[in-house]
Amino acid sequence: MTTTLLSGDNCNFCDRAEIKSKENTNIKTKQTIFYNNPPTIIGSYSIVGQKEGDGPVGKYFDKTIVDAKIGEKTFENAEIRMLTDAINGAISAAGIRKNDVDLMISGDLLNQVTSSNYVARSFDSPYLGVYSACSTMTEALNLASTFIDGGKFDTIACSTASHFATAERQYRYPLEYGCQRPPYSQWTVTGAACSILSKSGNGPKITAGVIGKVIDYGTNDLNNMGAAMAPAAMNTMAAMFKETNTLPSDFDLIITGDLGKLGSDILRKLMREQGYNLGKEYIDCGHLIFDGSQMCYQGGSGAACSGTVFNSFVLNRLNSGMYKNVAYFATGALMSTQSCYQGETIPCISHAVIVEGQK
Asked: Could you give the C-alpha distances from 300 to 189, 263, 265, 287, 331, in angstroms and in order?
């Protein structure tokens, strides 16, 4: 698999967004929120498993674990441990203390967001558990940005996690079953990520957020996540371009959550039908995190897929000035195992944030 990543020097969106934000201070858009007081990402951290660490962007992750259980008794406890370490790592990277965090927003893939709930008990901060499947990271970033923009909180930790073994056990089959995967399937990323947002400080700023709609094109195959989620990504992306008066070429990077190779190809086709050509500035986290030699089929998936890539590779390039403006669309499939077993199709959603580097 060959992935082309180019950084542009076109920052037209920076000025456009600022002007449009001022023009729309008291005007409600359909899906896009313009932040008058954009929060700053002052710290981030990402942890991944060995397979992810061996992938194309492995050098950007803060920590790679060799043991999938990290010395814990179960894979679920390992997921809790990763998420705890990611939050602590982000707090340390931000140069703040634990009690400086006014609010924690976290979510994962397990039933009742179990991992996030168990992690929150070890932090003395107000907590919101959120679920948006693999788009949980951008949902958390949107909520945090709105709270900070409205002056309700000063510092918020946004985090998410997933684990290959726990997701397989919940959504498909236990690892011991050894089932054969179809060629259009994806590989759940083992990892955890956290971003610390603040009303002040140095770092990239979230200038706008886009709240997605639930979209269902009738896919009912639990393995075909890319095809299921691509229409939701298209819906949110088209809304963002229309409501911000921008084109794909106005961004240095447009990145989707975990559509994988097949899903991102479908998205390109769907966006062409909407009148938008996604060129070299577009890439998908699921397509990026693994390469063809790793036998991960269409690429990565899971809540940690886009969360870890954004908090490492993307923020690294924003902080270095290589990217000046990024549109980040995480995508999530909102099904349960029971709904699919009962013949239901898969409703999906995509939330987005627009992030600008320091001017």
From this structure: 6, 11, 15, 7, 12
Write phi, then psi, for 45 (nearest 5 degrees).
-160, 145
* Backbone conformation region of residue 208, classed left if phi is above 0, alpha if psi is from -120 to 50, else beta: beta
Give the chain's length: 359
pTM of the predicted protein model:
0.89
What angle (nearest 5°) sits at the alpha carbon of residue 255, between those of residues 296 and 17? 170
> Three-state SS for 241?
helix
What are the distances in angstroms from CA 125 to CA 101, 196, 333?
Answer: 7, 14, 29
Q: Which of 17-21, 160-164, 273-277, 316-320 comes out lowest in average pLDDT?
A: 17-21
Whole-number Å distance between alpha carbons of 41 and 27: 26
pLDDT at 226 exceeding the cut of 90 = no
The string over 22-39, giving b where at least 16 C-beta atoms fall within 10 Å of a residue's C-beta and e elsewhere, is eebeeeebebbbbbeebb
Whole-angstrom CA distances from 241 to 13, 215, 234 are 11, 18, 11
E strand residue ranges, the chain: 32-34, 40-48, 63-64, 103-108, 127-129, 155-162, 187-188, 191-198, 205-210, 253-256, 282-284, 300-301, 325-333, 348-356
Determine if residue 62 is left, alpha or beta; phi over 0 gives left, psi from -120 to 50 gives alpha, anything else beta.
alpha
The answer to whether the CB of 40 falls within 8 A of the CB of 202 is yes
Distance of alpha carbon 78 from alpha carbon 163, whole angstroms:
8
